[in-house]
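User: Fold this; tokens only.

Assistant: Input:
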Amino acid sequence: MRTRLFAALAAIGLLTGAQQATAAEHEWKFFTYFGVNDLPTNMHRSFAEDLTKATGGRLKVTVYAGGELPYKFSDVLRLVATNQVQIGDLAVGLNVGELPGHNVFDLPFLCTTFDSFFKALETTGPIFATSLKDKFGIHALIQWTMPPQQIWLNQPIERIEGLKGRKIRIWSRMHSDMLKLFGATGVTITAAEVTTALERRIADGAITASIPAYDWRFFDVAKTGYMLDFQMTHQILAVNAASLEKLPDDIRKIVLDKAEEWRAKYRSVIEAGEIEARKRLVEKGETLVQPTAEDIAKARSITRPLWDSWAQETGAIGQNLLTKASAACVR
């Protein structure tokens, strides 16, 4: 899949040539919690290389993946705010403590497709950008999403009732609340350990998108994907605003112009990556179970109260985001 990714990136002009020999005037670190060989990390590298090339090497951006620096996903906001790294791959749903009321896209069955997510982002995106700038001195460079979240299991199920009694690896509190309503239990396991946990039956399943499921070789340990398409993640390329402002005007303009150009590329690479990942998973023996319309309707009905309780808990900002997002997503 990695080879196909590079071919796809090259085909749309995302991979760049060798960096120019000009000594860098400014050097930025870019941290992502995704693994060294994961598709999002390769995408970030291509973006970083394009920035370096477009500035003639005057701005050098180096990407560090999970495990290459002693940081984890929950560190990203702090790292960027304190300028320990200049760019970070920030997952809003993983920073609820620092961004209360902002994890609207965590709500199950709110936005479930790329089209609906990006439509919702037209009205909600500026709210996230303002909060990050005002509270943390962070510039929201690019807002994007991973594919829909699924439930991957090491024992097959056909219906939603099959989740009862299962222990499922989660990455957000909302997942835990949702699974309780399904009669399952959420367990916290790091991304690096999740495959081993599934193999050893410490967990019965895991929540993630198709792309990580392939990158992490779930086809070896979790043979069933229950394809609920219940959630889109909300990712932000967060940049230390002071570092951005310190750049010379011409370099800063290139960075902002390139970010505008890359918004569409992030979407196209991830959408193509999901199609490829699903295909590869099936080729490796994964069974992708498409829930019945009845099961999807049941899951939506069971989890709908989470919207109301979340809006009450998060107050005005949560209610505002939910109103805007649901207007774009709910049909």
